[in-house]
């Protein structure tokens, strides 16, 4: 069967440069090879089961995700080492987790006594099958208990209720500093609440088997810090324009292929707008073409401007635009086309 060329694809389409993605996979795996901490990549950075398997094959200790239905998809795919680095609440979600925990020892983040009690109540005699980490707010101001004392209280409650307590988690948000002292300081400041929590729990006789934290912007620091057992970096695999200055060793690899549908003077309009490219604070860069700039995104259109008069585009031409921020964009597509030498080598369905 002859392989499809990118020019033959329906647009907008997500294209993944396989060689760049593999280089990112190997760079991250190489870093963790010599570290006591392990990588537990975040699934939302790609939402592709086959790529989660490749991350595990390259040495990752498990997969992180934020959603119960993603955890279920991972377990169905045969991946049993799943961390839900997020809170859940309400009887139906908890029942779903209890059900899933019968198939695999999925680990859940908790930050609330009521949820701990609900987990124990709904699991009943199976409470020990539920694995939990206590989530500490390390500065993001999202989820997580706000002190080491609260973490101790919740860990004790989990143990008393018969749940399996595994350790601590803390996600501090993206470390948007280029490599250097500022990045180091910011990362260490977010590690401290976790390390304080670990020390307090251990002084109370509670084993803290896991300390899970970190992201693409700080893995070099969190992944080398004593006490940390795993890092949840996700965006490194595809990399995006938001993160690339903060972890420049990774290459942008995911783009949106679009077709020129209108051209007037130096204004070029393509058929990929916010619904294909997302809508962050910044406009996305054009791939392999510094003579073209995205000027505006509408729902279904991007309006581009040719910076040099010598740039010629005709309706029907294809243009690739880098993904500015992976997380919202992946969700908008059904599949990713894995590309090599301008041809589709693999198609990756996206778990939505
Ligand atoms: C809990 C948690 N862990 C890890 C990550 C991964 O971050 P990144 O994609 O910057 O590597 C995120 C991203 O939002 C997250 O919410």
Can you list the ligands bound to this structure?
A: pyridoxal-5'-phosphate
Rg, please? 22 Å
Q: How helical, in percent, are the residues?
A: 25-40%
Order of helices and strands: EHEHEHEHEHEHEHEHEEEHEEEHEE
Uncertain spans: none
* Overall 3D shape: elongated
Number of helices: 10
Q: Distance between termini?
A: 29 Å
Helix/strand-derived class? alpha/beta
Number of strands: 16
Biggest beta sheet summary: 8 strands, mixed
Integer average pLDDT: 96
Tell me what portion of residues adopts beta-strand conformation: 15-25%
Description of the molecule:
- The chain has 352 residues and is of the alpha/beta class.
- It is built from ten helices and 16 strands.
- The chain is elongated.
- It binds pyridoxal-5'-phosphate (PLP).
- Pyridoxal-5'-phosphate binds at residues 42, 45, 64, 85, 171, 174, 215-217, 232-235.
- Pyridoxal-5'-phosphate (PLP) binds next to loops.
Using brief descriptors, characterize the structure shown:
352 residues; alpha/beta; single chain
Q: What topology emerges from the helices and strands here?
A:
Elements: E1 13-17, H1 18-33, E2 38-39, H2 49-57, E3 63-65, H3 68-76, E4 82-84, H4 91-103, E5 107-110, H5 113-123, E6 131-135, H6 148-160, E7 164-170, H7 181-203, E8 210-213, H8 219-222, E9 230-231, E10 254-264, E11 267-270, H9 274-277, E12 292-297, E13 302-306, E14 318-322, H10 326-330, E15 335-340, E16 343-349
Parallel strand pairs: 1-15, 2-9, 3-4, 4-5, 5-6, 6-7, 7-8, 8-9
Antiparallel strand pairs: 1-10, 10-11, 10-14, 11-13, 12-13, 15-16
Helix pairs in contact: 3-4, 4-5, 6-7
Bound molecules: pyridoxal-5'-phosphate.
